[in-house]
Each structure stands twice: as structure tokens, then as C-alpha cells.
Specification:
There is one protein chain. The protein folds into three domains: about 70 residues, Orthogonal Bundle (Multidrug-efflux Transporter Regulator, Chain: A, Domain 2); about 55 residues; about 230 residues, Rossmann fold. The protein has 16 helices and twelve strands. The chain starts with a strand and ends with a strand.
Length: about 375
């Protein structure tokens, strides 16, 4: 029989203050397993798993808003995944602190012989700020993985987006290729082309993403961190450039396209993908029905560069433009996978869903049960452009 503890007893067992437990209850981060008729809260040992996750992730630098989606489950498997995450981030922090310690020592040695080295001071500032970067790199990687997972596991088109996109590339014309926004390198995971005599450059604006790609793919590729608005290669350098779901994120689309066209050779090919206005529209409708204040994107990406307006935006830079559509849709029957996807979006959903995740999970589970799965439209495609 499960043993229950009062709020005070639970706080004492866990070694935290009563105020902390009450605050986590108030904001919905750690609700008691049982509430008596008189309103008294009761916690069980299983709640200790959730509390351990909260305290560990908080210590590692996560905000409470970021912690909400990471603790939605407290079963054994979820706890094991959480422990792996904690171990990985602690290893990264140890490496970071060792680097910081060595830099401090080296700076101290220089000060004993020379005047202040401003370059070393700047290096110290950058390293000191690196803790936040470690967390952000993890979140970027986690968000991308959540989006890829939903498509890979619930798409009706079994070829899959990345194999389909890879098969559209004419490798007979590839000698030097640049991918902008490579993410974790997923496009190249099952590459079957011989890379001999080919130079493949994989780039992203996120250092963490580039590191993830390198871990996945090894040393057969060239990796670099770059901003698409200023590509550090000479003109007419590449015969092929790829931008998979990237262009709508550029703050200056015209400047980005100018740079891409500049580094492409005459008759070079630019492959760029985007969404249409109906892409994943059911997910937007679902969250709006739950809370009309939620916006899953801070800006309407397809208005910036979508299937409907993409050709017109590309025409000033490319002579021949062909659009190929990818035929697919999703049938999602797992609430957690859908919630992970929703929480990975670039909008305000954490603000309004964070403290209501359990309620939102029940809402999604009921929708799945009523409809025998949730059908989600996919509206995406590829522009093949030639200079």
C-alpha cells in the first residue's frame, strides 16, 4: 500500500523548505498525488522523482518554464532519460569549468609579466557566459529532435522527408556543396554517395548544432558556423547550395538570397524547402481551442517565405525555378509526442501551457481517443533553382 506524507513531512524527507513545496504546488510544477476532502495535500515517494528532476534541472541552469515539459512524466523510463540528460550536461559543465579555470590561470601568468591583456579579458567574459549557451544548445537540439521525431514516427509517407529531399539532389553535378542550416546533420545520415573528390560543407548559425552534426556524421564533411547573411566564401565557389526550412528565419531574406546567389557558380543549383499555409494547421487549431492566447510562432513564417510566395521571392536571383511538393500527412496517436512537438515551437506556448501541461495532456489524450488518432496536414515542398 502506497504511503503518503503531509507537505511538511515530504519537505523534510526531500531536504527542501516547506515554502518551496508550496510554491511548486501553486505554480503547477509539482502537484500532490492526493488531496484530502479538507484540502490537505499528500505526497508519495513517486513524487520524489519529479522533485529530483526539478531541483537537478534548476541547478543545471534551466528556468522553471523550461523545466515544465521535461517533467511531464515521472515513470521509470522518463526518470532514466532525465538522469542521462543530467549526466551529459554535468559533463559539459565540468569541461567548461576546467577551460575557465585554465584560462584564468593563463591570464594570471600573463599579468605577472605584462600589462593587462584585453584579449584574455574578452576570452574570460565569453567563457563565463558559456553556462547559458550550454543550456540553449541542449534546448535547440531537443526542440529539433522533437520535431523530427513526430514526422518520422507518424507520417503516412514511409519514404520520409530527409530521404525524399536527398533523392532530389542531382549529385552528378555536385563537386562543392554548401548546406545552410544543417541542424544535426540528419539529411546526410544515410548518405550513399561516394564523397571522394567532393567537398561538402555543412553549416549552421548554432555552434551546438554543428557539433551535433559532427558527432553524427564524423570527419568526411567540412563543418562551420556561419551567418547566411555573410557567407565567408568567394564568389562562384559552389555548384550546389541547400537550405532546408531555413529561409523564413532570415532577418533579411534578400541579403541572404544575394549571398547564396553570389557564392553559386553560373548554372549552379539552389535547393530550398519551405511550408505552405496549411502545414500542421490542425495543431494550431488544437492549441487555440485549449487556450486562444497561444501562438506557436512569433511570426507567420509562410508569409516570410512559403510555397505560395516562394517563386516570386526567388525570381530576382534565379533564372529557372521548379517547385516539387512532398505528399504526406500525419496520424498521431501518442499525446506526449504531440506535446513535445508543440513545446518545441518558437512561440509563447511555454508561458500558457507550462503550468497546465497535465491538463493539456488529458485534453490531447481525449482528442486522440475520440478521433482514433489526430490527423495533421503536411504542406511542404522544394524549390529547385538555377542561376
Amino acid at each position: 500500500m502506497e504511503k503518503y506524507y503531509t507537505t511538511g513531512q515530504f519537505a523534510k524527507i526531500a531536504g527542501v523548505t516547506l515554502r518551496t513545496i508550496r510554491y511548486y504546488d501553486k505554480i503547477g510544477l509539482l502537484k500532490p498525488s492526493h488531496v484530502l476532502e479538507n484540502g490537505y495535500r499528500q505526497y508519495c515517494k513517486h513524487d520524489l522523482i519529479t522533485l529530483q528532476k526539478i531541483l537537478a534541472l534548476k541547478e543545471l541552469g534551466f528556468s522553471l518554464e523550461e523545466i515544465y515539459p521535461l517533467i511531464i512524466d515521472n515513470d521509470k523510463k522518463s526518470f532514466q532519460e532525465s538522469l542521462k540528460l543530467q549526466t551529459s550536461l554535468i559533463d559539459q559543465k565540468i569541461n567548461h569549468l576546467n577551460n575557465l579555470k585554465n584560462t584564468i590561470k593563463n591570464t594570471e601568468k600573463i599579468l605577472n609579466h605584462d600589462d593587462i591583456s584585453w584579449e584574455k579579458i574578452i576570452e574570460l567574459i565569453n567563457l563565463t557566459n558559456n553556462d547559458e549557451m550550454i543550456i540553449q544548445q541542449y534546448l535547440n537540439s531537443q526542440n529539433l529532435s522533437s520535431r523530427i521525431y513526430l514526422h518520422e514516427h507518424y507520417s503516412i509517407n514511409k519514404e520520409g522527408w530527409f530521404p525524399w529531399l536527398f533523392n532530389q539532389i542531382d549529385f552528378s553535378k555536385v563537386n562543392r556543396l554548401l548546406e545552410i542550416g544543417c541542424g544535426n546533420g540528419k539529411l546526410w545520415e544515410n548518405n550513399h554517395y561516394n564523397l571522394r573528390n567532393r567537398e561538402i560543407f555543412l553549416s549552421d548559425c548554432s555552434h551546438g548544432m554543428v557539433e551535433d552534426a559532427k558527432k553524427l556524421l564524423g570527419n568526411d564533411y567540412n563543418y562551420l558556423v556561419l551567418d547566411c547573411h555573410s557567407i565567408p566564401f568567394k564568389s562562384d565557389f559552389f555548384d550546389t547550395v541547400i537550405a532546408n526550412h531555413v529561409l523564413f528565419y532570415l532577418y533579411d531574406l534578400n541579403l541572404g538570397l544575394e549571398e547564396i546567389a553570389r557564392v553559386l557558380k553560373d548554372y549552379g543549383v539552389f535547393y530550398c524547402t519551405t511550408y505552405g499555409k496549411n502545414h500542421m494547421i490542425e495543431i494550431t487549431q488544437i492549441v487555440h481551442q485549449f487556450d486562444s492566447r497561444i501562438q506557436l510562432s512569433k511570426q507567420n513564417l509562410v508569409n516570410k517565405f512559403g510555397l505560395e510566395n516562394g517563386k516570386k521571392l526567388l525570381e530576382p536571383y534565379f533564372k529557372h525555378i521548379e517547385l516539387k511538393r512532398y505528399n504526406d500527412y500525419l496520424i498521431v496517436d501518442d499525446a506526449k509526442a504531440l506535446i513535445d512537438y508543440i513545446m518545441s515551437c518558437h512561440g509563447n506556448q511555454r508561458e500558457f501551457l507550462g503550468h497546465r501541461l497535465k491538463e493539456f495532456q488529458v485534453y490531447i489524450e481525449n482528442l486522440i481517443k475520440e478521433n482514433h488518432g489526430i490527423k495533421v496536414t503536411k504542406d511542404c515542398g522544394l524549390f529547385i533553382c538555377q542561376k
